[in-house]
Amino acid sequence: MAATHTAKAATSSRSKATTSAKGSKSKSAHPKEEEGKLKEFFHDEIKDIYWAEKKLVQTLPKLAKAATSEELRDAFTNHLEETKEHVSRLEQVFELLGEKAQAKKCDAMEGITEEGASVIEDTEDGTATRDVALVLAGQKAEHYEIATYGGLAQIAKTLGLDEIASLLETTLQEEKNADATLTSLAEGSINDDATEE
């Protein structure tokens, strides 16, 4: 009787061990599956920001042309050159991923650039108020890009894509600098000038 009880206990123990082994096996497979999904998401978001940057290459000259302040015009023009470099950097990212550079429409950036176009229509040409509106429109784009590049750089690190992470972080820093330039212009004179109109 005791021997039968011991045999049952041993069988039960083996059964639990097998179940546990199966459970741990499926758990160890799970991260790989998740990494595949994360990689797919990452690739998709790279296509999204690629579209956004290309859209900004078309939009920044319009913002520069609409600016009243020469300093603001220069800020947009200088950032246009950086943005062209951002496009080129993303093409390097596609190359490192072994993919053809492909853009996927970015609804967020489309909305931001449409809003930028509408503030030009809604403000008077040659006024500081228009410049205030343009600074705000520019900063909305910068903040979107800062959030996107910061998140993408972190995902790249998680996936072990260190070279890509480095490229994204370089662009991230340039976006932060562009935002700081716009803030400095607003604090310097643009906002004060607009209060006198």
Write a short abstract of this structure.
This protein has 197 residues and is an all-alpha fold.
Question: Which terms summarize this structure?
Answer:
0% strand; 5 helices; single chain; disordered N terminus; elongated; 197 residues; Ferritin
What is the topological layout?
Blueprint: H1 2-66, H2 70-96, H3 107-122, H4 128-158, H5 162-195
Helix pairs in contact: 1-2, 1-3, 1-4, 2-5, 3-4, 4-5
* Secondary-structure class: mainly alpha
Which superfamily, in CATH terms, is the homologous superfamily?
Ferritin, core subunit, four-helix bundle
CATH architecture: Up-down Bundle
> What's the CATH topology name?
Ferritin
CATH level 1 name: Mainly Alpha
Please write the string of helix (H) and strand (E) elements. HHHHH
Query: How far apart lie the N and C ends?
Result: 100 Å
Please summarize the sheet with the most strands: none
Q: What general outline do the C-alpha atoms trace?
A: elongated
Radius of gyration from the CA trace? Answer: 26 Å
The total of beta strands comes to 0
- Structural domain count: 1
Give average pLDDT, whole number.
87
The proportion of residues forming helix, as a percent range, comes to: over 70%
Number of helices in the DSSP assignment = 5
Description:
By secondary structure, the chain is mainly α. The protein has a single domain, classed as Ferritin, core subunit, four-helix bundle (Ferritin, Up-down Bundle). 88% of the residues lie in helices and 0% in strands. The protein is built from five helices and no strands. α2 packs antiparallel against α5 (162-195) and α4 runs antiparallel to α5. The longest helix has 65 residues, at 2-66. The chain is elongated, with a radius of gyration of 26 Å. It starts with a helix and ends with a helix.
